[in-house]
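Dear colleague,

As promised, here are the two records you asked about, laid out in our usual form so they can be pasted straight into your sheet.

NAME FIELD: protein one
SEQUENCE, THEN STRUCTURE:
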Amino acid sequence: MTECEASKQLIRFFCFYLDCDFRELAQLVGVDETTLRRWEKKRLTRAKLARLARAAGLTIALVEAVVAPTLAALRLVGQGTEEKVFRNLEGALRQLTAAAEALGRAALADLFAWLGEQPAPAQEPAEVHWERLKTRTAAELLFLVDTQPELLSRDLVILLADASIDAAATDLARASAVAHAAHRLAVRLGREQGETGAAAGWALGFVGNYERVANNFDVAAGSFAQANRLWKAASDHDRAFFPGWRLLDLEASLLRDQGQPASALARLTEAETVAPSAASARILVNRALALIELERPEEALAVLAAAEAQAAERLDPRVQFCLQLNRGTCLVDLGRLEAAERQWPAVQAAVGFPGKAQEVTLMIWHRARLDAGLGNLVAAHEGFDQARQAYETRKLAAIYAVVSLERAVVDLKEGRYADVKELAEEIKWVFHSKGLHDEALAALRLFQTAAERETLTVDVAERMVRYMYRAQSDPKLKFEG
């Protein structure tokens, strides 16, 4: 019997077992009749067999251990006994599932699933594979995860996804490659092992996070929408292998960057309900960021203190940096400059050495704001310029505009009107970039006009700075000059 005939026989058995016709079986499996007809024409992959098994309420392990060998034996003795064998096989399967009830059906199903997921004896841990993949180029990495059977594991999907977060702080191109590699490996799990989409949905959230960091908010939102659909449609069994709270946490970061801090807080509340206690500090730090966007620094300080208190052990370096930096930010926003100065060494220590470029830039920007508040205008001017250069290189128009206005305030206080006019020229590129809404752009045009005419005052410039911060969470807000 050919592979095509063997596939047809398996499909005939599932119709017999479920007491349904071909069209009804297609509906139960979740495909159309044309697709199921195509399945008959070549060898059934394990993923397709797993979908047929789920439709029948059987485990893939049971189908592989009982159904497939029995039908293979049937093919050796001819077609004349097929209906009788089908009937006997159905009876055997129903006895097995009844026995499973007595033993504890869920426990037995878990055992079959566990057995099916165990690697071959020579299978190496995901960490070993990741160490080898780290040095591969983007093209090599994507090729390997698409083709190599030994890489097919949930653990490696998780390691790749986590690594994409680390890479996003220093190398966006690498972050893209690693995030997409995680997603493509997750898709393979569904295609080759019958995984129901939890892996693909979870990993797609990290592709969305890369798009967020790259300032492609609309693309990121589309990725998260698709990720959530896949995640919710997946089985509870498959979702249990992945930390689902990370999807909510990452989407909250996107919502915050899109100027929706209230929605971000709601998503973080959802994350808290499903996250383990070890993740509490990370979620609280992200909650504080949203509160800062909402101009609620006192609440943010309290949340940051709670995050530090809840950390059962040393915080992840990224979380520790965010905690210390944003504590300093809140103190500056509240005008508690002496306290911010005392806290400054903690910010420096959290960056580490050598510091990641993104974190170093944020630290420099924070120091410039603190120096401006303390009246150290020369140091503030220098710090703002360093931050501006970094954000222009990364084409982060919204942040660049805010830092430029903060430097304009310093220039005006020193009476350096020529420097303010120069700023007005240098800022022109933001009008052709993404990340700023129409009202914010209108405010920047007012800044340009006033700077060119030398009519800009310190008071107006400071109000523009406050407006630009508020406008990030309210795209419809207008500047009242």
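NAME FIELD: protein two
SEQUENCE, THEN STRUCTURE:
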Amino acid sequence: MHILLIFSLFYFLIFAGCYILISRRRDNLSIEKNAQWIFYTFLAIGFILRVILATLIKGHTIDITNFGSWAIHVANRGLPYFYVGIPFADYPPGYIYVLYLIGLMQKLFSISRDSSLFLLMLKLPSIITDLIATNLIHSLSIKKTKRANALLLSFVFLFNPAIILNSSIWGQVDSFFTIFIILMIIYLINEKFTAASIFSFVALLVKPQALIFMPVLVFSLISTKDFRIIIKSIAYGILTFILGVLPFSIIQGAFFIFKKYFDTLSSYPYVTLNAANIYALFGKNWAIDSEKFLFIPFRIWGIISILLITIWIATLCIKNKVKENLSLIALMLVTAVFVFGIRMHERYLYPALPLSLISFIFIQDKSLFLLYGALSITHFLNTGYVFILSLKDIYYIPGCDPFFLSIALLNVFFSGWLIRMVMSNLMCSGRNASCISWRNGE
């Protein structure tokens, strides 16, 4: 716990320094002239740091063991037979393609399953998407601000301890999954609806959690009021999904994928699974979702919460007149679902980190930048605490744990802050004192 607090404090100081520098109006000509080389240096250092951590720390025992077993199994049996004869595989086909390539390389070069090289191979896809996400953030920033500010924004993401923990230490694939969500939002903002639909369905192939973001796509399409665009976009998305599932359907049958999603989503019938949200705040971590509150099961409360959130998001998408606001709407959606939805794992807040930073880039409200820093620290504390406990073979956090409850309280507070931002429509205008004027030449 102490090491988590130390790293959080260290990142807070770095983040505060970057915030102060971004808020300043003066240009640093030497940085502006060498910005591209500085950015490449950041990427190189970030990559080397991740590789070192990835090889030194085994990762989350259950996840790394599963990924390694799945990679070897699919390489030996082939894609059509992946779900045959394997005791546990709760991932849909999307990421199995990645594990297939890893398994083939492991088999081709006779790499030991217990070697540091194989461990690095399992973590490398997420490490690479960390770098891709950093590059996207940098590219978006350059279009909106000075190069020095773009460097600072890419820096606070690339060296974010929550991002590094997920990909390089834990060995999870939330970075790989989230990159497709980011691309979906960017293409929606640019009104390239077909591409946005394709990326959303690719994300769905990787993780069922992509369903959280589907309302943003669906209601953005509806808001176009163009039947041709709606049909074309949905058709391309569904076609992408079918092609991704097709090799596995040869043996499993045409509709196996629906059972796979249903089984995955229903496999953890708990109110919250180490996610520091509103239910954890009331001591319901790992409580069965059939337990009742005010005579109604938590499962029903969860459904009610999701329906209310979806209705609100639909209203925001349809009434939205500023396309850049879609990043803020997506941020609001994933944060609200994490805090008020049931069956949440601790990692499900991950997409809120890049989305809050991208929202800041588009909307230029300093509250969003501060929210990025706040959520980064609470997410790091939440996932870091779960990871450290897993090293001791402890996978359950007691509902009365004061450290866990403190994180939950902060997450609920920050979600309320975000709701207030959305409700108050804190967009950049001449009357809004919370906005930073950071465009080139301003």
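A couple of things worth noting about protein two: Confidence is low (pLDDT under 50) at residues 426-434. The first helix runs from residue 2 to 23.

Best,
R.
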